[in-house]
Amino acid sequence: MPSPELEIQDLTVSFSTPRGKLIAVNGISFHLNPGETLALVGESGCGKTVSALSILRLLPEPPAQILSGKILFDGQDLLSLRAKALQNLRGHSISMIFQDPMTSLNPVLTVGEQIAETLLRHTTMNRREALQKSADLLNRVELPSPKEKLQYYPHQLSGGMRQRVMIAMALACAPRVLIADEPTTALDVLIQAQILELLESLKKEMSILIITHDLGVVAETAQRVLVMYAGEIVESGPAKALLNDPFHPYTKGLIASIPKLGGKKKSGARLEEISGNVPSLDQRPSGCPFHPRCSWAMETCKTQNPQLRKVESQRQVSCHLEPGSL
Amino acid sequence: MNGEKLLVVRDLKKHFLPKKKFLETSPAPIRAVDGISFTLHEGETLALVGESGCGKSTAARTLLRLIEPTSGQVIFCGTDLSGLKETEMRHLRKEMQIIFQDPYSAVNPARHIGHILQEPFEIHGFRDKKENAEKAKQLLEQVGLPLDHFNRYPHELSGGQLQRVGIARAIALKPKLIVADEPVSALDVSIQAQVINLLLDLKEKLDISYLFISHDLGVVEYFCDRVAVMYLGKIVEIADSEQIYNSPQHPYTIALLDAIPRLESGRTKSKAPIKGDIPNPANPPKGCAFHSRCPIKEKQCEEKIPALKEVAPGHHAACFLKH
After folding, report:
1. What is the pLDDT of residues A168-183, one digit of tens each?
2. How confident is the model at residue B269 (pLDDT cuts 50, 70, 90)?
3. N or C: which end of chain A has fewer CB within 10 A?
């Protein structure tokens, strides 16, 4: 087993709000292997984006505060690095792409200037070389007529093109780790297919952590999956096994509630649903955070929060029930 | 499904004129909706499907006359809407309601839920305050919200709960038609299923017809009897749900279905995604609007516009190569 590219240990993140200190991520641990594509899945408010942003310390602190944990990359703890050292890392060894390419690109700089900025910051290239390399990168992400596009401003591009520019920026310094936060959520389904195809072609070159709420995207891209609920990892395992045979009632419910093509004939007109709502951070239920919505909940679930435990060689679940008994 | 014709749309167009720039002669109109026709029967659910910018939301708003059509006819319950005055239109609006995509921007944040639900009654001349409040409470119950939400404000509700309020408001006056404009796309997966099931239940109970606007073909299959696929302001294929999913005819429909990420399979390598973006509606490609992205296009597609033709009983598609 090679040592992981990136390792997160016992990460806890809180936010100070008028309602008090709210825990958004509650002691999660995971790792990303070299060359692996790992998906972090969950609904809004489950802490998946906060976890991802913590890795590069991109959360505004305050109100955010990393209460505990370690983020190990290259033998050093990113949480103990100084600002300067972190800046050397961002966009160089670890890059990130965001959900909404319109708000993540600078509207008053041309595409070329924005990509070149990364190169000028991290390499010894001069401006001309950096712009040349930027055009190459746009070509790499299959943006038509890349030389011309260097002169464009973000508003002149469509959503799919902007996302390609974001990816080109992230690739500029050939990072070892790419964090993609809902990279296709804002896009139409045909454009989503194009971007997923592009990410697929990057897999050989880097480790990818993809954050999404869409289990279809997970099935198409990831080798391994972590399912998050209320700030905790409730299940993890290889994508195929986990999606075919989920152990946690939440994962099972989530998969069942997706309208699948051809599903109407199989299961009748109604969709299976998970009752209730995702708990807000200040109303975290006692015991297992999923128990108010769980149809298998027992007395113990109300008082004791189950620990994430190993159930098969590569799978973990945090549930009091025996896996396979759903 | 064999019910009366509830809504007949004939050659509906909505062109937007962009602002004239300095020294520019007349700018090309943006053909957001460019001649669509369809019929919705009583008790039927029809989906309008397409990518963003294809004109599906504009179509919905135009046929409710929330924006004025450029040309074309909308006949609702036998009445042609285009000639109606505002007062007559308001009267008819009781029968045709809309649910919006983003429940937060669809309600007044300064009014409590009870007030929001009483408003339709007040607007339509029901003056008895006590009775209106009583009806609002019944609506809460109908959409599965607890009664104590009556005095809450929109920001105190989650997206799913607030969408239920939007639905309650839409069914308040017992309409015949509800236009649902992407009602679940802003919601989380586990909440989406709840809201779709609620809409299905209400259809059964209240005998409502839906015009369901969506970009998600997975949701549409669950929900709809018939599907119309739109591309650049035109309907390119319309058929029964089953026909669309089992034997799609238009290459655009086929591409849309192929592009849906599937849970079961994992990535299928043979998949060749459609290249490029949806073209600018102000400057659409000549001939078939889809030819610039079409994997099977021929010479004639670049020159002539294919008409919507029947390819099987009840199944219409606009493609030269399919008929």
Report:
1. 999 998 899 999 998 8
2. very low
3. N
Residue B141 CA to residue B178 CA, distance in Å, equals: 19
Of B51, B200, B266, the CB nearest to A219: B266
What are the phi and psi torsion angles at B38 (to 5°)?
A: -165, 165
Query: Does residue B267 surpass a pLDDT of 60?
Result: no
Question: Which of B182, B189, B280 to probe the A interface (max A CBs under 10 A)?
Answer: B189
Ranges of each domain in chain A: 6-37+49-85+220-317
List, for residues A273-291, the tens digit of each pLDDT value.
888 888 888 888 888 999 9
Distance CA B111, CA B133 (A): 14
The amino acid present at B165, given as its one-letter code, is V
- Prediction pTM value: 0.84
B residues 234..263 contacting A (CB < 8 A): 245, 255-263
Q: Which residues in chain A are closer than 8 Å to B192, comparing Cβ atoms?
A: 257, 259
Set of chain B residues whose Cβ sits within 8 Å of the Cβ of A159: 52
In angstroms, rounded to a whole number, what is the distance separating the alpha carbons of residues A186 and B26?
A: 33
Q: Are A237 and A225 in contact (CB under 8 A)?
A: yes
User: Exposure pattern of A7-21 as b/e (b: 16+ CB <10 Å)?
Assistant: bbbebbbbbeeeeee
Tokens 């600078």, located at residue: A106
- Of chain A, the percentage scoring pLDDT greater than 90 comes to 36
**pLDDT reading at B266 higher than 60:** no
Q: Evaluate whether ipTM surpasses 0.85.
A: no
Domain boundaries, chain B: 5-17+30-95+173-249
Fold held by A6-37+49-85+220-317: Rossmann fold (3.40.50)
Q: Chain A within 8 Å of B270 (Cβ-Cβ)? A: no
Q: Of A61 and B114, which is predicted with more confidence? A: B114
Side by side, the strands of the sheet bearing A94-97 are: A94-97, A177-181, A207-212, A37-41, A224-229, A232-238, A315-317, A309-312
Burial group, residue A299, by CB count within 10 angstroms (0-12, 13-18, 19+) = exposed
CATH 3.90.1310.10 applies to domain B5-17+30-95+173-249: no
Report the sign of the C-alpha dihedral through residues A58, B157, B224, B30, in that order.
negative
Greater model confidence, B308 or B280: B308
Interacting residues of B310 by C-beta distance below 8 A, sequence separation 6+: B316
For the segment A180-224, what is each residue's pLDDT rounded down to a tens digit? 998 888 778 888 888 888 888 888 889 999 999 888 889 888 999
Helix (H) or strand (E) holding A115: helix A111-122
pLDDT bin (cut points 50, 70, 90) of residue A265 is low
Does the CB of A262 have a partner CB in chain B at under 8 Å?
yes
A326: burial class by Cβ within 10 Å (0-12, 13-18, 19+)? middle
**Residues A217, B266: C-beta atoms closer than 8 Å:** no
